[in-house]
Design a protein that fits this description.
single chain; 1248 residues; alpha/beta; Rossmann fold; SH3 type barrels; nine-stranded mixed beta sheet; seven-stranded mixed beta sheet; 42% helix; Beta-barrel_MTR4; RNA binding; ATP binding; RNA helicase activity; Ski2_N
């Protein structure tokens, strides 16, 4: 080829210019001429390119068509119009729809500077790592952000960010590990011995010869391979000897790589063993350290203001000690668990974390278990911090805020869907953590805690729980970071607990103190209450005859008790009062019955009236006239309120706000009010101490009682809080009261269970495994895998150092002999336990019975029972046993018997020298057999004589007549039957007929017969070899046990996991290899009842229905109560209900077939259709007042169901889009619009 001469480059040909990118010292090469009048291309001036942004279409259109004079000339409009038409009729360019993002650059320019002067010397090209990472293929925080539309909630095709503590499972590491394994296998598995030849080749030896330059002798290398040593000729060995003196001893190994022989001379570094030893010591320290660190809150914190001169948040009051300790830990960016009573001031910790994150320009997420609580916290934090957002199922306010308040379920979905919010997250605050005990929703807390990435610190706020340390230890071990536990039992306002027995004006002062402010239980008060009650009942009995007092009181009796008590309390200025009543109807009845009571002044009445009117002004006219609203308005004016789930949400909020202002004097509430925000009262009254928990009636648990009683006493207003328990029928049992008031609160227990959503969400990400989630759950927190793995490596080392077993020739059946002996020992022990536990066995073990004793001191020695203890749990048998002279007392060294322990020996013990005796208390496991013989003995004499001769001065006395006779008899028996005395047969003599015993006896017989046939017993080295086998097997068995515990096989939920996987495969949610299919992707979108909804979607059940009908049908997924009213519904809806039940039945049956415990009936019965008519009419526009008449379900419950139904409709709409069914999607949107109106979707008062 001839050479082409190019002209020299002109200035305009290829202007190369360098542009510094960001401040990291990287450069970018620009190859196009830079326009003089335009700014630089934005991509070039930021270190990582532009942040994601979306072009505003409207602005683009305006710019292109309306503000461009070329498009819209002032005069020639016709031509412009023609031009416009031409544009609209342009040809289609399908390629323009295909967007191909430019591939990311894989390298950048870096600058080389002179280290002393900093002068530019050169540019080098450096490869950039992780350029192809995105939310669809990586768990790393290095990945590029997704589109803005997905930044908040994420997308269900995104990977989550890598959860903390799961680092060992990244894909790269998995791949690396397997490649290494392959390499090692490849090296080890080289065939070096051709078939038929005696010696083979060793490839590695040659290589070692050439690489080692005389410093490591070849023979020292070969000495690590036994097979070659055998083949090496003697001469070479002799030659090699002198050299080995100087060479370091190489560790024994199977691979040359492990010997650390590199090309070039061997360095004279210290042997690697010492380094490893140091590492091990360090590892031991690391293992012994605890992750949960209790903080001592008694030590004063004097230097608090020195350590934090510029706090992120200042309070108008002095902090308590525990709050200061928590703030110090937050400043150090540590995770904390704060357990304190209600109103002790846990919110201070949360507030400081929010202030810190605002200072650091990061974000905080505050999660709460209940939506109402989220709304209240939103209002509180909004007034304090301003920049606060709220995310609940139906509301989204200010999602860009630095502090986001949400329910735990939403945080879980954000974590699974890889939301961008997680990147900026510094703190997650879990309020009311003891909610993890909730059977239905507790699992969500555990999932969130497991899924949180490493950079997020955790703050847990909880009521006092006994096992806060254990719980924190679990989180710490899982997240590999310390959790500081700060728990205080101090109450800012101490409580006094009373019993109240009054029920009329005459008895209204009958209030008896039961627990004083110091926490002492006063029995005097209890008995005084009992006497007061008794006196009244006896008087009643004299005048009216005895009536059998029932547990329940009539409404009239209730009314008189409440009127009496409330008059009494308002006279003593003990209002506001929260009256906890564990039934919604009871709450309503009690409030209605107090119509005569008026607890508010005229100014308070006008304040209540104006606040009530203002709050309800946003409701439509018809809704303001709802019976519940009118009733509540009248009650509130008298200072009486009702708070339970049946009250309309907006009314509930009005009542809460009036109560916190002190305008509601008496509030009848159910337990949920105690879960809520800090709304303390002066007094708390318990209507009853029994509640129905969904399965039956039971007493309140200490935790529940403390939580509710803790509402009494307002900080800074009351010296003490008053708690009153009403004794309406009789005084409660003192034991019950003591347990409830002073008992330990409920421990935090894991409610972890597998859900299909969790399984599918984890299956779609290869690097996360469901078994890891199960292993990290609180229910498996007892597994200390690290310690177990460490022990396994120790055992492996022990195994390798044990001497080898000889199983040649005569000893070839040694192993099977060991297994037979072991099985025989286990079978005999099991039989012996069965005999000892049986009635007939204990009958046989009476005084005078001869038994065979075998324990650490005696082997097959005969003894006679003298006394049997009455203790059924640890029963002991005082027995006289024959033994060698001089071996009467336990000396500490174990069996010095003639027969070795491994031989199954039934030969009875006979003393070689003179016969002696000892009296010992035996456990049931020491008695090897119960013989058919019995002796006549005088136990008292024997025991007295023996114990007398144990004293030093009588030690040399001869034994008494009774002992001598018994000893002689036993000796005679032993000598007459050297091969064993006949013992009771468990089946024939003792009549134990259970299958296990009968099988055991037969197995024992077969195994005993087997023992005779073994050859190894006759070997001269048998004892020594058997001891070796025993030792090796002991280590092996312990190792196998640990290997099982470390493996997934020992997970308690593993069988259920396989069953659920089987269900998912059968229904084609995942394929055989576990890859998530379309159905599975749809199910990931849905938060509850995902299986049923997905099946309904794919079976097209919802398509033929009108929007309002589909909304009505889907209400069955949310509504959980029983109703007495049968709904009147259209035929298509009835058909739909049949289909839903049919699909549910199908899923239930399939689950049963796959082995899941829940029965098909239970699965089907969880879908209740009581609200179908209500929802149908609501979606068709019927006013709420008329709807309330259609059902016996309370208004508040209806509203909550319709609100949650809206969330389900949104999920179905998303799912329909994934499937590609746009018709169904738009139908769901219409249904959603139809139900989102009026009182049901009135915005919360807290968020406005």
């Amino acid at each position: 080829m001839e050479r082409i001469e190019l002209p020299p480059l002109g200035p305009a040909d290829l202007p190369l210019s360098l542009l510094e990118v960001g401040c990291s010292g990287k450069f970018e090469l620009l190859t196009r001429p830079l326009p003089s009048h335009q700014p630089l291309h934005p991509l070039t001036t930021l270190p990582h390119g532009l942040p994601p942004f979306s072009v505003d279409l409207q602005a683009e259109v305006e710019k292109r068509f309306l503000s461009d004079p070329a498009w819209l000339p002032i005069h020639d409009t016709d031509a412009a119009f023609q031009k416009f038409l031409k544009l609209t009729k342009r040809g289609k360019h399908l390629d323009s729809l295909l967007q191909c993002p430019p591939t990311p650059l894989h390298s950048g320019l870096s600058v080389v500077r002179d280290p002393t002067t900093g002068m530019l010397l050169d540019f080098t090209e450096v490869p950039l790592e992780n350029t192809g990472l995105c939310a669809k293929n990586s768990l790393s925080l290095q990945r590029a952000p997704g589109p803005p539309s997905e930044s908040l909630r994420g997308s269900n095709t995104n990977y989550p960010f890598m959860p903390a503590g799961m680092e060992e499972l990244t894909l790269e590491q998995i791949n690396k590990k397997s490649e290494l394994e392959e390499n090692i296998d490849f090296e080890n598995d080289l065939l070096i011995m051709p078939p038929g030849l005696k010696t083979g080749m060793d490839f590695s030896a040659k290589e070692a010869k050439t690489t080692t330059k005389g410093e490591v002798n070849l023979m020292t290398l070969l000495s690590t391979f036994d097979d070659i040593m055998d083949d090496a000729p003697d001469g070479e060995e002799k030659e090699g000897k002198p050299a080995t003196v100087e060479t370091p001893k190489l560790p024994r190994t199977n691979s040359l790589e492990d010997l650390g022989i590199k090309e070039g001379p061997v360095s004279s570094s210290p042997p690697p063993a010492t380094a490893a030893g140091k590492k091990e010591v360090k590892g031991e320290e690391e293992d012994t350290k605890k992750w949960a660190v209790p903080v001592d809150i008694t030590s004063p914190c004097e230097d608090f203001y020195k350590r934090i001169p510029d706090p992120a948040f200042k309070w108008p009051f002095e902090l308590d000690l525990f709050q200061k300790q928590a703030v110090l830990k937050l400043e150090a960016h540590d995770s904390v668990f704060v357990a304190a009573h209600t109103s002790a001031g846990k919110t201070v910790v949360a507030e400081y974390a929010i202030a810190l994150s605002q200072k650091h320009m990061t974000r905080t997420i505050y999660t709460s278990p209940i939506k109402a609580l989220s709304n209240q916290k939103f209002r509180d934090f909004k007034t304090t911090f301003g920049d606060v957002g709220l995310l609940t199922g139906d509301v989204q306010i200010n999602p860009e805020a630095s502090c986001l308040i949400m329910t735990t379920e939403i945080l879980r979905s954000m974590l699974y869907n890889g939301s961008e919010v997680i990147r900026d997250l510094e703190w997650v605050i879990f309020d009311e953590v003891h909610y993890i005990n909730d059977a239905e929703r507790g699992v969500v807390w555990e999932e969130v805690l497991i899924m949180l990435p490493e950079h997020v610190s955790i703050i847990l706020l909880s009521a006092t729980v006994p096992n806060a340390l254990e719980f924190s230890e679990w989180i710490g071990r899982m997240k590999k970071r310390h959790i500081y536990v700060i728990s205080t039992l101090k109450r800012p306002v101490p409580l006094e607990h009373y019993l109240y027995t009054g029920n009329s004006t005459k008895t209204q002062k009958e209030l008896f103190l039961l627990i004083d402010a110091a926490g002492n239980f006063l029995t005097k008060g209890y008995y005084a209450a009992v006497d007061a009650k008794k006196e009244r009942t006896s008087k009643h009995a004299q005048s009216f005859g005895t009536k059998n007092t029932s547990q329940n009181t009539t409404p009239n009796q209730d009314k008189s008790v409440w009127l009496t008590l409330l008059n009494f309390l308002s006279q003593r200025q003990q209002t506001p009062v929260v009256a906890f009543t564990f039934s919604r109807t009871r709450c309503d009845e009690n409030a209605r019955s107090l119509g005569t009571l008026d607890l508010t002044s005229a100014t308070e009445k006008s304040e209540i009236h104006s606040f009530f009117q203002k709050s309800l002004s946003r409701l439509r006219g018809g809704d303001r006239q709802l019976p519940q609203i009118l009733l509540m308005r009248d009650l509130l004016k008298k200072g009486i309120g009702v708070h339970h789930s049946g009250i309309l949400p907006i009314l509930k909020e009005v009542i809460e706000m009036l109560f916190s202002r002190g305008l509601v004097k008496v509030l009848f509430a159910t337990e949920t009010f105690a879960m809520g925000v800090n709304m303390p009262a002066r007094t708390v009254v318990f209507d009853s101490i029994r509640k129905h928990d969904g399965t039956g009636f039971r007493n309140l648990l200490p935790g529940e009682y403390i939580q509710m009683a803790g509402r009494a006493g307002r900080r800074g207003l009351d010296a003490t809080g008053t708690v009153i328990i009403l004794c309406k029928t009789g005084v409660h049992d003192m034991g019950d009261l003591h347990v409830m008031m002073l008992g330990k609160p409920t421990v935090l227990q894991s409610q972890f269970r597998l859900t299909y959503t969790m399984i599918l969400n984890l299956l779609r990400v290869e690097a996360l495994r469901v078994t890891d989630m199960m292993r990290r759950s609180f229910s498996e927190s007892h597994r200390d895998t690290q310690a177990q793995e460490k022990r396994i490596t120790q055992l492996k080392e022990t195994l390798s150092t044990l001497p080898p077993m000889d199983v040649e020739g005569q000893l070839s059946d040694l192993l099977s002999y060991y297994h037979t002996i072991t099985e025989l020992r286990i079978t005999s022990q099991a039989l012996q336990e069965a005999v000892m536990d049986s009635v007939s066995g204990l009958k046989a073990l009476s005084v005078g019975r001869v038994v065979v004793v075998s324990n650490s001191l005696h082997l097959n020695a005969l003894g006679v029972i003298l006394q049997v203890s009455n203790d059924a749990v640890n029963r002991t048998f005082t027995t006289l046993i024959i033994c060698e002279k001089g071996n009467e007392e336990p000396t500490g060294d174990t069996m010095n018997t003639s027969a070795p322990p491994h031989l199954y020996n039934t030969a009875l013990f006979t003393p070689e020298g003179p016969c002696s005796h000892t009296v010992q208390k035996l456990k049931s496991q020491d008695i090897l057999g119960i013989t058919v013989k019995a002796l006549k003995v005088i136990p008292e004499r024997i025991i007295d004589n023996y114990s007398k001769r144990q004293q030093p001065r009588f030690r040399m006395d001869p034994p008494g007549q009774a002992i001598s006779t018994a000893t002689q008899e036993l000796l005679r028996l032993a000598e007459a039957n050297p091969n064993g005395v006949a013992t009771f047969d468990p089946v024939n003599d003792l009549h134990l007929k259970s299958v296990e015993v009968v099988e055991g006896v037969m197995r024992q017989r077969v195994l005993r017969d087997c023992l005779k046939d073994f050859k190894c017993i006759h070997s001269p080295t048998f004892s020594e070899q058997f001891a070796r086998v025993q030792e090796r097997m002991r280590v092996q068995e312990e190792m196998d046990k640990l290997l099982f515990l470390v493996s997934d096989q020992s997970l308690s939920l593993l069988p259920e996991y396989h069953q659920r996987i089987k269900v998912l495969q059968t229904l084609q949610y995942i394929d055989a290899s576990g890859a998530v299919q379309l159905k599975g992707r749809v199910a990931c979108q849905i938060s509850s009842h995902e299986m049923l909804l997905t099946e309904l979607l794919f079976e097209n059940t919802l398509s033929p229905l009108a929007p309002e009908e589909s909304a009505a049908l889907l209400s069955c997924l949310i509504f959980t109560q029983k109703t007495q009213v049968d709904p009147h519904i259209t035929n298509t809806l009835q058909e739909g209900i049949k289909q839903v039940l049919c699909v549910a039945q199908k899923i239930g049956d399939l689950q049963r077939e796959c082995g899941i415990a829940q029965s098909a009936e239970d699965f089907v019965s969880q879908f209740k259709f009581g609200l179908t008519e209500v929802v149908y009419c609501w979606a068709r526009g019927m006013p709420f007042a008329e709807i309330a008449q259609l059902t016996d379900v309370q208004e508040g419950t209806v509203v909550r169901c319709i609100q949650r139904l809206d969330e389900v409709l949104k999920e179905v709409r998303q799912a329909a889009r994934i499937v590609g069914d746009s018709v169904l999607g738009s139908k769901m949107e219409r249904a959603s619009l139809a139900i989102r109106r009026d009182i049901v979707f009135t915005a919360s008062l807290y968020t406005h």
